[in-house]
TrEMBL record:
Annotated protein name in UniProt: MFS transporter
Source species of the chain: Sphaerisporangium album
Biased composition (Basic and acidic residues): 1-10
InterPro entries: MFS, MFS_dom, MFS_trans_sf
Keywords, in A-Z order: Membrane, Transmembrane, Transmembrane helix
Record field: transmembrane: 173-190, 196-216, 246-265, 277-296, 308-325, 331-354, 366-390, 396-416
Region (Disordered): 1-26
Amino acid sequence: MYLSETRRTDAQANPGADDAAAPPPGRTATTRVLAGNVVALGMVSLLTDVSSEMVTAILPLYLFYQLSLNPAQFGLLDGLYTGATAVLRLVGGHVADRFRSRKLVAGAGYGLSAVVKLGYLAAGRSVPLIGLMIGLDRTGKGLRTAPRDAMISLSAPPEAQGRAFGLHRAMDTAGALMGPLVAFGVVAAVGSAYDAVFVVSFCVALLGVLVLVLFVREPGGPARERPKVSLRDTVTLLRDRPYRRVLVAMVPLSIATVSDSFLYLVVQRGAGLDAGWLPLLPVAVSAAYLLAAVPFGRLADRVGRSTVVIGGYAALLACYALLLLPQGPVVLVAVLVLRGLSYAATDGVVSALAGPLLPEERRATGLAVVQTGQALGAMAASWAFGVLWTAQGSRAAVTVMAAGLCLALAVAVPLLRKARA
């Protein structure tokens, strides 16, 4: 069964079908989000994240230790990885809405990211070519993210948005948890021959594209039945005050967020871990995210999505505070767990918060605008953190980011509370 439309839309299309379409006893609209498009898209993301996190797990090790990049150079590439192609999120969202083909645009993004994994083989030890591949990989992510989240939002009833995104992010994070383990296993088996990691990563990503093609359906009915969207219509989204509050709140929060790659390097160096263990640090983050994604999604539907988002950034602030303490085993685990809990409370919940504020025909575009703001903020954060680390050391860089997050929360909390959904 596919969740192409909510029960309300079905009832409008066929007023006499309420009884026939009603779920059997014990099966509610909440349980319906656990089937169809949400699960199919979750499986696509699971496979894609296995592929992506295999590469993400080894990139700090490869760039920092084998190619001997300094923190400022690493921050430049990491910023490119997270935000340089952020504008393509807007392109992906608008094209998906304009031509009413969210699945096609998402598929193009997934396909590009898959092919790029082979591009890393051609890049070799060339830092500019590696930067190009990183940019193309993020281009694929930029194209697919908003159309994918729009399909999830449109495939679940409004009252279960948090649970739908929680389920998707849990499956996505299961892939993120497996990716570093697979990469660690491949590196352990073949040594520092990273080419093998890229080849395995490509194969897994290709499988994710096949799942998308075969099992995901375009929500909202046939394209010809839905109104076309113009660029002028898109600009009018910013006139909606609740939506605008979410957008304005998320940008400063993203600017004050240390990227995962830098977080793992700070933890690894502070705890005195051997560099070979670096690919395993994301596993603890992913495990905490996986366990909390669905419960936090349910909590967001119950107590308010803005409240859960605020709590997620409070957890991130606690993570920064722990980074400033001596890095024993307990502190190390606490830092990684808090980062995972922060993801669980913010990643999908932000989309669940913003999605219902947007009309169906412009949902991909509206989500893309929020995600672009977040991506540009993350890019600026990576560049700033790399420069601060190079100039003053990692401890000073973390201190500055913690202070920045306090200021960002002071701006964001009142805005998000007024944008409750």
